[in-house]
Amino acid sequence: MGLTSFTGELVMYVAILAGVVEALNIEPGIDLFADALNDCTPDKYCCVNREKGEKIPGGPSCFFREQSILYFICWSPKGSMTSEILVELIVELDIRKFVNRSNNSIKPFLLLDGHDSRLKISFLQYINNPATEWCVCLGVAYCTSYWQVGSSKQQNGSYKIALNKAKQELVRKKEKFGLKATIEKTDIMIILNNAWRGSFACTKKIKNQ
Question: Which pLDDT value is given to residue 62?
Fold first, then answer.
């Protein structure tokens, strides 16, 4: 659900959606109960309404080292991390100039668990390229809870509770307004955002784990 610094601060919100075809209406989500700002041209509608609490909220931004870092959404057949997604993720950080590469003697550091997606050629080529070099440390396989900062039983438990609560609240709200009481694909980001804020976004809990 995100990248976290060693200090426990949130760096980037990450959502991996299950699917083969990327659906642009699912990625930002649609909040049925938010008022749309229509005083704009059609081509500007999505941009104007794409913020927290608005019609097309997308994912949350993280504020780290005096800069706002937008959310990152990607797709994989099983909704799990792949080597290709891992490359896209760190490329995104490089594009956003999250990493200061003005000093060639200092390399950005990334701590990962020992999943085999970290050992595929596409990832290894990128992190070993002199122009985009990263110092990557792989922890022992099958010990995810030790190597993923913020991924503790408490945080995962809080997330599951918050996720269930977000689903229930959305269904109840739909019933109240006479809408079909089902979870649609365009509700995914709305639910994930609410669950994330009640779990992995709690920096204080991450630092205390």
Answer: 80
User: Is 33 a residue whose pLDDT tops 80?
Assistant: no
What is the average pLDDT value for the chain, to the nearest integer?
78
Per-residue confidence at 44, pLDDT binned at 50, 70, 90?
Answer: low
Per residue, what are the HEC states of the chain?
A: CEEECCCCCEEEEEEEEECCCCCCCCCCCCCCCCCCCCCCCHHHHHHHCCCCCCCCCCCCCEEECCEEECCEEEEECCCCCCHHHHHHHHHHHHHCCCCCCCCCCCCCEEEECCCHHHHCHHHHHHHHCCCCCCEEEECCCCCHHHHCCCCCHHHHHHHHHHHHHHHHHHHHHHHHCCCCCCCCHHHHHHHHHHHHHCCCCCHHHHHHC
Residue extents of the structural domains in the chain: 2-208
